[in-house]
Design goal:
Distance between the termini: 36 Å
Order of helices and strands: EEEHEEHEHHHEHEHEEHHEEEEEEEEEE
Number of strands: 20
Structural class: alpha+beta
Number of helices: 9
Shape: globular
Number of domains: 2
Low-confidence stretches: none
Mean pLDDT: 92
CATH architecture of the largest domain: 3-Layer(aba) Sandwich
C-alpha cells in the first residue's frame, strides 16, 4: 500500500471547485512536486493534506491511517511556509527546538536532535543568531530544520524558494534535495516553477483548473506531455495543427500549407486531426536540401548557455534554441532552413489545445 493516499479529494467554495477529484498515491520517501499556474489547486491540495482546510469530499490515508478529518496537531506533519514563519525573538537553535518543546521532550534529547539537524543544514555555527541576522537561504534552512527535527512522516513545502534571488534559488533547489535524500522524509512541494519541479522531484503532478492533468516522472512529463497545456507549461514548445496521413508503414502529419512532416508511429488513425508538439531544442538549422521548413529569423536572444531564435515561417512563428558553442550566432533577418528528427515530434489530441 502507498504511504500517502488521496482518493477523490475535493474542495468546493459554493459552486467553485478549488480542488476536484484529486487521486494521488505517494510512496514512502518520494519527493513529489505539485506544479501549475496560480489558482490551479496546488496550494489547496497541500492545505488539505496538512489539515489546514476541511475537504468537501474524499478520503486521505497516511501509512494506513485515515487522516481525512484529523486536526492539524494530530497529523504530525512538517510544514514549511513561503514566508518561513520563523519566530523573530528566538535564536536559530530555539526556533528549531520549538516543536520538540511542544512535544515535551527532555532537554538532553532536544539538544541531540537540534545539533544533528543544524549540522545537516550546515548551520551549526549560527545556532545563537537571530533570524534578522541571517540571509534568505539561511532562514529557509532554519525553517526546514524546524520542520524536520520532529521527524514528521511527511514534509509539506509551500513555495519554499520563492523569496530567494535567482542564483540562490537554484543553489537551494539542490540543497533541499540533498537534505531530503539524507533524511528520507516523504516530501510534497508546491511550486509554479517548472525548472524547480523537474530538477529535484521523483514525480511531478501538473495541475490545471483544480484537477491533476498528468502525474509522471520529470523526464517523461517533459518528453511525453499528455496535453498542449502541459507541453506549454512544462518548458517551451511549438504547437502546430495538422492531420495524420499513413502510407504503408510510414506515418506523416500534413500541416497547414500542405507541408508533410514525418513522425514516429502513433495511436492516431488515418485522417485524425492532431496538434504537433515540437520542443525548441529539438529543431536545428540545416541546408536548403535537407530542411523541412524555410523561414526568416525575426528575433534572437542570448541566454548565456544557449541562443533562442524566433523564426517566421509559413506555419507561423517557431522558436528554436541551440547551445552556445562559442561560434558566431545566426543573424536577425537571415534566411534559414529548419529540420528535426521524426521521433521528437509529439502528437496530441487537438481538443487539448487551450
Amino acid at each position: 500500500m502507498s504511504f500517502l493516499i488521496l482518493e477523490g479529494v475535493s474542495k468546493y467554495y459554493g459552486d467553485f471547485g478549488a480542488l476536484i477529484d484529486m487521486n494521488l498515491r505517494i510512496e514512502r520517501g518520494e519527493f513529489i512536486s505539485l506544479l501549475g499556474p496560480s489558482g490551479c489547486g496546488k496550494t489547496t491540495t497541500l492545505q488539505a493534506i496538512a489539515g489546514l482546510i476541511e475537504v468537501t469530499r474524499g478520503r486521505m490515508q497516511l501509512d494506513g491511517r485515515d487522516i481525512t478529518h484529523l486536526p492539524v496537531n494530530q497529523r504530525g506533519l512538517g510544514i514549511v511556509f513561503q514566508s518561513y514563519a520563523l519566530f523573530p525573538h528566538m535564536t536559530v537553535a530555539q526556533n528549531v527546538s520549538f516543536g520538540l518543546e511542544m512535544r515535551r521532550m527532555s532537554k538532553h534529547v532536544r539538544d541531540e536532535r537540534i545539533a544533528k539537524m543544524l549540522k545537516l543544514v550546515h548551520l551549526e555555527m549560527l545556532a545563537e543568531r537571530y533570524p534578522r541576522e541571517l540571509s534568505g537561504g539561511q532562514r529557509q534552512r532554519v525553517a526546514i530544520a524546524r520542520a524536520l527535527v520532529i521527524e514528521p512522516p511527511v514534509l509539506l513545502l509551500d513555495e519554499p524558494l520563492s523569496n530567494l534571488d535567482a542564483k540562490l534559488r537554484e543553489e537551494m533547489q539542490f540543497e533541499l534535495r540533498r537534505i531530503q535524500r539524507k533524511v528520507g522524509t516523504t516530501t510534497v512541494m508546491v511550486t509554479h516553477d517548472q525548472a524547480e519541479a523537474l530538477s529535484i522531484s521523483d514525480r511531478v503532478v501538473v495541475m490545471q483548473a483544480g484537477r491533476a492533468t498528468q502525474v509522471d516522472a520529470p523526464y517523461r512529463l517533459y518528453e511525453h506531455p499528455k496535453t498542449a497545456f502541459i507541453s506549454g507549461f512544462v518548458g517551451k514548445t511549438n504547437l502546430l495543427p495538422g492531420r495524420v496521413a499513413r502510407q504503408g508503414g510510414a506515418c506523416e502529419v500534413v500541416l497547414a500549407q500542405g507541408q508533410r512532416l514525418p513522425v514516429a508511429a502513433n495511436e492516431f488513425a488515418e485522417g485524425a486531426e492532431v496538434t504537433v508538439c515540437l520542443r525548441p531544442e529539438k529543431l536545428f538549422f540545416t541546408t536548403p536540401q535537407q530542411g523541412a521548413l524555410a523561414g526568416r529569423i525575426s528575433e534572437r536572444f542570448f541566454l548565456g548557455s544557449q541562443w533562442l531564435y524566433r523564426i517566421a515561417t509559413t506555419l507561423g512563428e517557431l522558436e528554436l534554441s541551440c547551445p552556445n558553442d562559442g561560434s558566431a550566432p545566426q543573424s536577425e533577418q537571415a534566411e534559414v532552413h529548419l529540420a528535426w528528427a521524426p521521433d521528437v515530434a509529439r502528437l496530441l489530441a487537438p481538443q487539448a489545445t487551450p
